[in-house]
Amino acid sequence: MIFIGTDIVEVGRIEALIRRWPQRFVDRIYTGQEKAYCERQAVPAIHYAGRFAAKEATRKALHAAGQQFTVPFKEIDIKRDHLGVPSIALGSSAPGNPGPYRLALSISHTGQIAIATVALESDG
Ligand SMILES: CC(C)(COP(=O)(O)OP(=O)(O)OC[C@H]1O[C@@H](n2cnc3c(N)ncnc32)[C@H](O)[C@@H]1OP(=O)(O)O)[C@@H](O)C(=O)NCCC(=O)NCCS
């Protein structure tokens, strides 16, 4: 079976959260590697927004597949390969990780919005 999750995030909303809680918001939601990548970009909030959408989309795909537990944001690590292709690494608190499923992710953004789609392929 294949399950999907999608999410759309306004970059301005993320910008406002970062401005309001500069340290707290980022440290609560993002891993060190995610933060390092976003902070290297010309407009970090765009990339934080993409990763936020990816984390929400991951939760949706997991819930759609029947998982009851909501994985903490920081346990959903959005990685990039040498071409920029994003992928998801779930942390140790995700139930049954590595689960009987595989995850695939795509992210897109403009200066205003970011969107992410996750496909979950389940063995069951
Ligand atoms: C890679 C490419 C498809 C991205 O298109 P784009 O319209 O600029 O991308 P969007 O703004 O919609 O989305 C950006 C997101 O796409 C994802 N992405 C980046 N490169 C990607 C790739 N090669 N394949 C799949 N997804 C990719 C990332 O998640 C990125 O977000 P991030 O920078 O926050 O991680 C396009 O730039 C391209 O074809 N470039 C040619 C290859 C290239 O130059 N690669 C550079 C790295 S060597």
What distinguishing features does this structure have?
124 residues; alpha+beta; Ribosomal Protein L22, Chain A; three-stranded antiparallel beta sheet; two-stranded antiparallel ribbon; 31% strand; globular
How would you describe what is shown here?
It is a single chain. The protein has 124 residues and is of the alpha+beta class. The protein has one domain: 4'-phosphopantetheinyl transferase domain (Ribosomal Protein L22, Chain A), CATH 3.90.470.20. The chain has four helices and five strands. The strands form two sheets. The chain has a three-stranded antiparallel sheet. Strands 2-3 form a two-stranded antiparallel ribbon. β2 (76-80) and β3 form a beta hairpin. α1 (11-20) packs across α2. The longest helix has 21 residues, at 44-64. The radius of gyration is 14 Å and the shape is globular. The N and C termini lie close together (7 Å). The relative contact order is 0.25. The mean pLDDT is 94. Coenzyme A is lined by residues 47, 50, 80, 83-86, 107-109.
Q: What is the tally of helical segments?
A: 4
What molecules are bound to this protein? coenzyme A
Do you know the CATH topology?
A: Ribosomal Protein L22, Chain A
Q: Name the CATH class.
A: Alpha Beta
State the end-to-end distance. 7 Å
Determine the mean pLDDT. 94
The CATH architecture comes to Alpha-Beta Complex
Class based on secondary structure composition and strand pairing: alpha+beta
Summarize the structure.
By secondary structure, this protein is α+β, with helices and mostly antiparallel strands. The chain is built from 4 helices and 5 strands. A hairpin with a 5-residue loop joins strand 2 and strand 3.
